[in-house]
Fold these 4 entries.
Entry 1:
Amino acid sequence: MGIPGRDGRDGRKGEKGEKGDTGLKGRVGTPGAGARGDPGPPGKQGPMGERGDVGRPGQPGQGGQKGDKGKRGRRGTGGVCKCGSLLPKSAFSVAITSSYPTEKIPIKFDRILLDEGGHYSPETGKFICAYPGIYYFSYDISVANKHLAIALVHNGQYRIKTFDTNTGHHDVASGSTAIFLNPEDEVWLEIFYVNQNGLFTDPGQADSLFSGFLLYADTNYFDTLAEDYV
């Protein structure tokens, strides 16, 4: 047997083989001793999370500065004047249909000649004030067969009293006065002496009348009424 020959030359590089299976993950190595590197660039924005609960309201901010005055608006359409509806109206004139009424109670004049405002009551014989102001009252009473002692009464107090002596003929007793009234004040006529009730009426001969009306309303009341209306 002869001496072994020399090694031959390396052969040519073979073709790339197929990729092998992934090997098992190795153990984490010991951290290196090098310095920490610079932060990397920010990543892409992640998906939006769910909406959180509403937070507590913050403290009110300071008031802003006053703005400039605005431009003048357009002129509005004119309103309808109803001034006449503000004028208080109160007047009455009434007659009685029976003679010789009972004394010391309101005389019930039960025939209405005029009742502007509806402030006189034939059921009670009383005028009840609706508007404060100065009122004028008068009466013209036919008298027959008896004397007549009649008075104008304001809230139970005699304001004027007249006395007519019967002479055997028909006569007329009259009286008038001006009174300041407040709302709900009452005015009526009353015979103030017993058996002095010669008040007479006859449809074919004579009437007995009681009348009153508002001269002018209290100015303060009228001003307030106008303000409330507007």
Entry 2:
Amino acid sequence: MKNSSSRPLYLIPYYLWIALFVIAPIALIAYYSFFDLAGDFTLANYRNFFSSVYLQLTLSSFWYAFLITVFSLLVAYPAAYWLTKAKHKQLWLLLIIVPSWINLLLKAYAYIGIFGLYGPANKLLEVLGIGKQQILFTDFSFIFVSVYIFIPFMILPIFNSLDKLNPALIDASRDLGASSWMTFRRVIFPLAINGVKSGVQAVFIPALSLFVITRLIAGNKVITLGTAIEQQFLVTQNWGMGSTIAVFLILFMIIIMMLTGPRDKGGAAHGKIK
């Protein structure tokens, strides 16, 4: 039998990593949030955050993150379900994962070319008789590109949950007279809900802090919490306000993780057909 007292030794690198790259940065952000531009201690940054400007910015960030998550889910769930039935599902899954390996800037610049006035998207509109449209620097282009980027992170957890489903449960549902819709609603979806929650986490949380896409695709017409943090640190040099926004962003992320965390309750996974 191995000596259990030696186990903590293996955890030392993990604890060091957490301390240096998670706890320390958060502590620094919290520390700087209490200082103004002159370096004086103040609580004004927190008071300013609850002003109408930053509250509206927060609501806007949540709204765009919600839209990106919903559209990603609407595309990813059917795709993940189809993948579980596909003959060469591992190959198809690889083709979905590969684009996520490409640098974000490269994908953003690619869509600048696609959605540009002389890009393929406007060429198609001309062929259809609609004429050239300003597709770039709009809410549509921002949400479309964001959904494209986050789709793999929504598909993977949902696919893993659906792929682990016991086919006997679905067959039993149909043998008991349930329709396809009822089988999905009462059996498939409840059993794969943890995959949906993981996908929502993987999409909603980073969507709150987007700033590269807002710059390149939305042309700063879409302002998120991530964009505000970038402006405070790099443009106005107000590290205190930027840190304050980051503190609230971290709090929002923690709350979302708590709300969407998996909750396995043993027998609760057995769907009931009514």
Entry 3:
Amino acid sequence: MSTTESANAAEIRAAIDGWAEAMRQKDASRVLSYGTQDCLVYSLAPPLKASDADAEGLRQWFSTWKGPLGYRLQDLEITSSGDVGFATALAHLSGEKQDGAKVALWYRQTLGLKRTDGGWKIAHQHESVPFYMDGSFKAAIDLDPASKADWNAPSHPPMAGVIAYLNVEDANATAEFYGRAFGASEVTRKYAEDGQRLMHCHLTINGGALMLSDPFPEFGYPWKPPEGFVLHLVVDDADFWWKRAVEAGAEVTMPLEIAFWGDYYGQLRDPFGITWAIVAPVKKEA
């Protein structure tokens, strides 16, 4: 690296350090002072393309957080040529939202800078996270710099049928309850970086898959009361399944009895507001 390139890298690093500190202090005016007036932003949040010259919009976003932000860059690499510079890093954002939600995630950060009369300024920001290639298209916000993927590992076979994916207020408690009430066995459980909320939980009940996750309102997935659907369990011994669920704490909303269409049928509501139907064919007398 030439002397000029070394000097450029040091100046660019100083500008990025100042910008990052302004982010931590939630100082919108100071953050924008490190950018050009026409700075182009591809951020994690909508829209697809934006300008970072809106101080009021930045202040509004900062106001959704309690106290200072946790913001740092890891593996920062800087290159420059003439009056143009590029920087890449892994960024870590953490903090507490006004509603009490804890946020902690890693994402990819790319900055394009240009030298101006006022020093090096950020002209382009690009933030991104990978997404899971399993068909769910869920953002992979549970990754960190130590995460490793074995690309040579065999893929899981596709699961048949339509699989319910429930967004519940407390996925940990829900999964534990389903183990007691419905004999659920756990396939996998993945926590968010706050170590409390579940990004993904895969259960097997009665031979079928059921997926759970906690709400993540900061990423556009707030909790909503469940309505308009029933989880239908077709079993051999309805009395056994019914008794176990009721003893675990499920509420009877429709008694288990022979329905007009001929099946042995009843409905329960679990403590998380989900309605379950337990059904079995009526056994014919020998």
Entry 4:
Amino acid sequence: MSRPANSDVLLAARNLSVRFGGVLAVNDVSFDVRRGEVFTLIGPNGAGKTTVFNLISRIYTPTTGTIAWSGPDRHVDLTQQAPHQVAGLGIARTFQNIELFEHASVLHNLLIGRHIRRETGLWADMLFTSRVRAAEVRARTKAEEIIEFLDLQHYRDTLVAGLPYGVRKVVELARALCTEPRLLLLDEPSSGLNVEETEDMAFWIQDIQQDLGISVLMVEHDMSLVSKVSDRVLAMNQGEVVALGTPQEVQAHPGVIEAYLGSIDEVASLRRPAGSAPARSAT
């Protein structure tokens, strides 16, 4: 596969479309994710955001279009890869609905995430050779580093089933980081979180970008979080691209306002004229 034209581009989606029966869920969507940026997909429910995520992680196959991935040693079309190969290329994902092993500890969930970086074979594992022992030490060291990075020390030996929802979200984030990704896909990371937990999530995302140098592709509804952490935003509606730019540019775009609130005329009709007082109800 040829290298994306811009060397700063880590992932390049071109003319993606996917049809489920008679429904065109994504229609001719194109965008780039640059190295070291936080790129966010926004839009109302049913806009096609998670479908795009599922195309990248190979849960779905596009009807048309390509997704070029610029790896450190090779460049591939993700649409030609099997789903189990995606993580090995350097792409990790979290889910809107948390997917953890509830009856395993936080540490063991993170070590499961390290499985993609497995360095030894079955027979060596069964014999527990010195090479296997060294690999286990490296895996444990990486997991402990992520636990410290995300302030999970207090929960490291706790079963996931006994954790608050907000902590589980961070654990799922930690497991994804244990795969040492170059691109992290976050599917609605603030979903189900309170205001304080959402602020913490913004902090983690910024640290992942700035301290770990990991690019982030995010689907999110919370516009305060989007504005705080995103370098660029792609707005979608009914499977199509509406606007692309900075968070401020996209939020001010008439098509985005209409997608969220109705037509411009309808929004204008809701505004009370300056200086007018609200109507008083009859007593």
